[in-house]
């Protein structure tokens, strides 16, 4: 009904940014080209037109990369199963989270052979995750509902991250990292044209106050940088003992790409690569202070010479 009212002009939303959000939620932009869609959503998020011809900011350049840097390996990068094979061959199995199995359908999973604790997730989506901390109390029906819903999603349609478009929907079971009383931090190393420049630490996901984020430079100095609506942690983050190794790994994995974020977990001094991220927040989240959007944008070199070098 709301969709019909908007289309007919009966329901008019005066705020253009809010109007675009509503239209996107109603999937009214589903048939737009990627460029048209990204243009509308960029305006929705930042209140200004995107400059695809001469992008300057980080978020502009992320959108530009979605349209112009379409290497086939990116589809493997975002596949949560295939990326394990890539990392294992390039760096070694010790850097991947141990995997118990991969299936096409929920009904294929033999839960009797899985350990008491594990994580289920879909390979092609974001958010389709189920954590089992004890098989005796595991809600199988709830897990099935979450996983089957995720299997039907095509994450490409959400913000047009094209590498997700052709990822085969599957289910994997992984080792549960940490313990019930252990807070696990994410270390997300941001690499610009093959150079690690800063690390984002995500903490307190399961606390009452919710997720906190802190950015550090390579010397582990805290940066005056945050995402809107996300607070810094009240905890003091110690530099991981193997931080220099994490930077080296990130440099190796990102050396042929204009931007790549390498996401790590550190458990008992072991480091695991969770995933590789091409488009943080899909390029639709700002920074505080705002000038960081320009600073980070300057760190990505999209010149013809640099891009050709990446493809060599």
Automatic annotation (TrEMBL):
GO terms for molecular function: transferase activity. Keywords: Transferase. InterPro entries: ATPgrasp_TupA. Pfam families: ATPgrasp_TupA. It comes from the Bacteria. The keyword Transferase applies. This is Glycosyl transferase.
């Amino acid at each position: 009904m709301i969709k019909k009212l908007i289309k007919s002009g009966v329901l008019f939303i005066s705020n253009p940014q809010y109007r675009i959000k509503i239209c996107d939620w109603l999937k009214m932009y589903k048939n737009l080209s990627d460029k048209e869609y990204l243009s509308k959503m960029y305006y929705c998020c930042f209140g200004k037109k995107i400059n695809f011809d001469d992008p300057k900011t980080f978020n502009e350049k992320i959108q530009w990369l979605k349209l112009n840097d379409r290497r086939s390996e990116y589809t493997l990068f975002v596949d949560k199963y295939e990326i394990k094979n890539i990392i294992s061959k390039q760096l070694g199995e010790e850097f991947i989270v141990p995997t118990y199995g991969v299936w096409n359908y929920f009904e294929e999973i033999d839960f009797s052979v899985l350990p008491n604790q594990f994580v289920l997730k879909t390979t092609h989506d974001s958010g389709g995750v189920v954590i089992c901390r004890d098989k005796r109390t595991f809600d199988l029906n709830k897990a099935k509902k979450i996983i089957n819903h995720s299997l039907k999603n095509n994450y490409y349609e959400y913000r047009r991250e094209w590498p997700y478009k052709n990822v085969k929907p599957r289910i994997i079971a992984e080792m549960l990292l940490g313990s019930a009383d252990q807070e696990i931090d994410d270390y997300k190393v941001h690499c610009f044209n093959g150079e690690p420049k800063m690390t984002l630490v995500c903490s307190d996901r399961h606390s009452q106050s919710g997720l906190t984020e802190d950015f550090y430079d390579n010397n582990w100095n805290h940066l005056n940088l945050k995402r809107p609506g996300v607070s810094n942690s009240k905890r003091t983050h110690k530099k991981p003992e193997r931080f220099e190794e994490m930077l080296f790994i990130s440099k190796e994995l990102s050396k042929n790409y204009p931007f790549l974020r390498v996401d790590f977990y550190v458990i008992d001094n072991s480091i695991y690569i969770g995933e590789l991220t091409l488009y943080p927040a899909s390029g639709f989240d700002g920074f505080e202070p705002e000038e960081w959007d320009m600073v980070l944008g300057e760190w990505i070199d999209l010149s013809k010479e640099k891009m050709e070098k990446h493809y060599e």
